[in-house]
Design a protein that fits this description.
Length: 203
């Protein structure tokens, strides 16, 4: 395991520890090569308190499009329509995740996520890991998943504040501004780690 992998693993493990008493599943938006979802699966498998399902949403074909809010394309970092597929070092295998109770949903997240929720495929959610990078899926995720997030649950953002990916930041900021309560956006630190999260208040 590289230093980068160790840092990533430590960051996600710390986040998982924060939902120890929170019921619900894990939803990851933007699976890519499966680096993070493998970690969630390991943590869920070791959890003796909760039975959780890990849901992973991704086009599995790169970015379908960019909104004006996402800024210009940047091919050198995989930011282009259809991009990032060539960056996947090790594809995620269905048999690798199905054995641990994960479900992968392929397609445009702005369409597949609302559909999954309307079909009651997903129940209460303990943690949302938003690694979709761009404006539209991040906005959709906040709009439709926040009501499903259990009190005390975490909504985590992987690219918040990244200059190359302004769409995710804008979607979060706009959502925060529209809420009738004082949203506490927590900035996270560390290399190769998520950059921000919101904890759903316990009423």
């Amino acid at each position: 395991m590289t230093t980068r992998d160790q840092q990533r693993h430590a960051a996600l493990t710390a986040l998982y520890a924060r939902i120890a008493g929170v019921p619900g599943d894990i939803v990851e938006l933007g699976v890519a090569s499966g680096e993070s979802i493998r970690i969630w699966l390991q943590l869920v498998a070791a959890d003796t308190t909760h039975r959780r399902t890990v849901f992973g949403f991704d086009t599995f074909a790169g970015f379908p499009s960019f909104a004006p809010e996402d800024g210009p394309e940047a091919p050198t970092i995989g930011k282009r329509v259809g991009g990032e597929t060539e960056l996947r070092v090790r594809p995620l295998r269905a048999d690798e995740v199905n054995a641990h109770g994960a479900q992968l949903i392929a397609g445009d997240i702005t369409k597949t996520l609302p559909l999954a929720l309307s079909s009651d495929m997903i129940g209460p959610v303990a943690l949302v890991f938003c690694d979709a990078d761009t404006y539209a899926p991040t906005k959709t995720a906040l709009d439709v998943l926040w009501p499903r997030l259990s009190p005390g649950g975490l909504f985590v953002f992987d690219e918040y504040g990244h200059l190359a990916w302004p769409g995710e930041t804008l979607a979060v900021d706009q959502w925060v501004e529209c809420q009738p309560w004082d949203v506490k956006l927590e900035r996270l630190t560390g290399d190769y780690a998520p950059t921000a999260c919101i904890t759903k208040p316990i009423k």
